[in-house]
């Protein structure tokens, strides 16, 4: 049986966590060290992973909380397999379990989804003792679903991770703030049909104790953080819990600001809380607006209408909080006309600064296990599984939309690479959309007519799923 208690025998790896110091490594690191293990922690988005470190490890766990992380994580797993074929490779996180059938063929040895901490710890212990793997661990020989049991939460252990100064900053005018990241809940009580949280958590969520969250924030403030991102799928799944944490944060660190992700439905239901959120230091809120097409919103079971999304923009603006939407403008239910309506809304309301251009190019992903697969009407546009890209293929009924997606995705990626003015990219996208209708559009005239722009509070790394 392998000795996994030696320094570096366990290797914890993050490939990408949206420009934040990886919470999912720090959380697991704390639990393993409490049990007497001495894992090495590497964030490959910033630091190289050497072959010697890989060879030393006997158990390698790679965090894959999102699609981009999974793409990078699988590539890393295949490299690990070549360098150290005897090591046990485990992928954990939302996308690990959804794509387990593909990953377990030859890339990895096990996958864990849901509340990963306890199953992963028990997997390590099972490997040491040579016994059957525990529930919650999916292998080639053992079928297992997501582990959705309450975790004995611990304060994340971050001291082995790269300094916060190496990650994304909050840019607010000319002010650049070091950003910390934490979570106050896991899972989500809502079941939006396209969301990867839905097939894993099935409408459940867990509140992380306030003292744990505040201790994690405190540790990051000591290391220079002046802004905190709450990375919960929805900060207001439990609004009372969230407000208690925000109040305690502001009481202890009145100069520290924060941002959070909150559902449109919740922004409307609890709109009376928005002024207090601003007073407590909330400078922007991310919300999954997705579309301004009521049919698309209904098909996704988003729980809000286009008009309600517009109201949420007005309510947050009135409260002095920036609403930064995430969008899903390429879906089977979006039309060329409704795509242009989205662009018109942001232009006419002077909200272009609120969005990262990447959101104009997001196309619906349908991973294995997606709730959308259960919808009978999906068969009209659904195609075969593209396992290597972790999604089912689908085709729009209007070929112009699939062509537009390809052009917009290329344009946005190139603009990001060149660090172009986001407003320029926005109007270039609009020119492509109108060209698909056979209409002319002057980007230069639109930029001039839009007028002066301000640098609204935002993180310096664009959000990717």
UniProtKB/TrEMBL annotation:
CC annotations in GO: cytosol
PROSITE patterns registered for this protein in UniProt: RADICAL_SAM
Keyword hit for Ribosomal protein: no
Domain Radical SAM core: residue ranges: 174-407
Protein keywords: Iron, Iron-sulfur, Metal-binding, S-adenosyl-L-methionine
Protein name: Radical SAM protein
Zinc-finger listed as a keyword: no
SMART domains with a match to the protein in the record: Elp3 (SM00729)
Gene3D superfamilies: Cobalamin-binding domain, tm_1862 like domain
Entry cofactors: [4Fe-4S] cluster
Species the sequence originates in: Ktedonospora formicarum
Gene Ontology MF term list: catalytic activity; iron-sulfur cluster binding; metal ion binding
